[in-house]
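STRUCTURE REQUEST FORM
Protein name: D-xylose 1-dehydrogenase (NADP(+), D-xylono-1,5-lactone-forming)
Source organism: Staphylotrichum longicolle
Requested output: structure tokens
Priority: standard
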Amino acid sequence: MAFSLELVSRPLLDDPSIDAVYIPLLNGLHCEWALKALAKSKHVLLEKPSVSNAAEAELLFHSPLLEQPNAPVLLEAFHYSFHPARQHFLTLIDPANVAHARCTASVPALVFPKDDIRFQYDLAGGTMMDRRSRQKRKC
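Status: completed
Returned output:
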């Protein structure tokens, strides 16, 4: 039997007893399913990266669904933004005196085969795009 995301997810979005959904799907499906959930007035916790490209960012974050009265909340799942350790760390630095910080991460080319899901463009790069989204995050 083939798996159908539509058959599994649609009843959840149609259920009036569910107020919020978490979307941990493949990166290339984030925008589509976030919009479907928002259209059903569900709050959305969207796994990072929230979108695959600038066009999806424009479509999702400027959606009229987010501008209506009592609009649902759309939040990207950067858990560390709310972690007490991060809050404490921020009290230890003076942002005005930090010119910039640099972080570099790399993955050896031989770790993943060339046909690995992480390199499939139509799926928005799998976890490799997730790694990059963390590096671009500001304090």
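Reviewer notes: DSSP finds five helices and three strands in the chain. The domain at 1-139 is CATH 3.40.50 (Rossmann fold).
Form closed.
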